[in-house]
Amino acid sequence: MQLARIIGSLLAVAALGHVAHADDRAEVSTSLFEEKRDGTKGGLTVVHPQADFGVDIGRYVTFDAGYAADAVTGATATVYQVDAVSSATSFSDLRHEGTLALGFKGRRSQLTFSSTVGTERDYLSRQFGGAASIDLPGRNTTVALAYSHSFDEVCDKDNGDAMPLERKALTGADPCDKTAGLFGKDHAGATVWHRLSIDTAQTTLTQNLSPTLNLQIAAYGQILNGFQSNPYRRVKVGQNSPQEHIPNERARWSLTARVNRFLPKLHAAVHFGARFYDDTWRVVGGDVELAYSQYIGNSLLLKIHARVYQQTAANFFRDAFFYQTLETAGEYYTGDRELSPVRNAVFGAKLTMISLGGDKPVWGLFDKLQFNLKGEVLLIDNLAADSKADNTAGIGQQFLYGNSLIDAIVIQLGLLGNY
What we know:
Layout lengths: L24 E11 L8 E14 L3 E17 L1 E2 L7 E18 L3 E12 L2 E13 L5 E17 L20 H6 L7 E20 L2 E14 L7 E2 L13 E15 L4 E12 L5 E12 L3 E12 L8 H6 L16 E15 L11 E15 L25 E11 L1
Parallel strand pairs: 4-11
Antiparallel strand pairs: 1-2, 1-18, 2-3, 3-5, 5-6, 6-7, 7-8, 8-9, 9-10, 10-12, 12-13, 13-14, 14-15, 15-16, 16-17, 17-18
């Protein structure tokens, strides 16, 4: 479920009958995410096709629309426990998402309203939002604000008034009709739909410090209220294997700083970024990223980057061994790896080929055409959530990945045209 957490979504499509401008755009791309999961067949595979188009309606109005999908296949542990690998089962899912956006732009400012709808078998997402930006006098400072609200619904097993340790998890055989969530209907005695509201806000300050040096600072905040457990995940707690149980309320925030420096003599640029993250579940993390962009001639741009991230565990997360042999850390319990202590590193490169139309448009249509090829490798290091002295057997942290040199890869192909 919730495939949006695995791969991001989209922005923008439309074709209106009017005279085309250079800012009109069309983009298609496909991403492939492949993760190795030890002890299972096929690991995890996500294919993410996306199509975005945008047009200018006169001088001051823009219209964007788009479509994206996530096709997921793989295997995952049915129960978070010491022998999690032996309980792995196969699954597949398909998610569709569409976005519409209407923008208004002035000489130094821009305002955009957007709406997104995403559907999958067991999840319905509806989001509305807006974003605004303005260049201050001198055009060396840009201030941007963005806000969105999501009305999500999640399909779950109908557990009635059962206590947390008695709740059963959803299975792929349970009925989860998309229209049930849309119209508030349930399958009595089998499944119910829970609500989840998400409010997200971000403010960004971009400052040109010199003709070749740029600084950006962004503050991000989000409040979630509603059902946030994975309805399929079970946790081995003593002799029981109930559905995971996590809080309904969560607030999180982050602060990010980025610096970009252009190197005229090398026809290149260097990039540095750092981010700090914290939330009310006491997941505290941070990452550092370095990147280098190099023009090769006038039509090729190569960018290489590396990022390292580490986070602590949520205050109710425990290694599987201790859930199974001791007890939960309070009322809640989970096997979600996104709430575990983890360290990962990403290394990647992106090659962009740019074709500019002169007297004749590229392919007879585009003023500028960009072809992108991107590849990344992901290395994951699972950390112990509980005392290492008590976890000498190395069986506290049981996930289906992390023992190979390269844990996942991402490959992306994209084509962007301006006309």
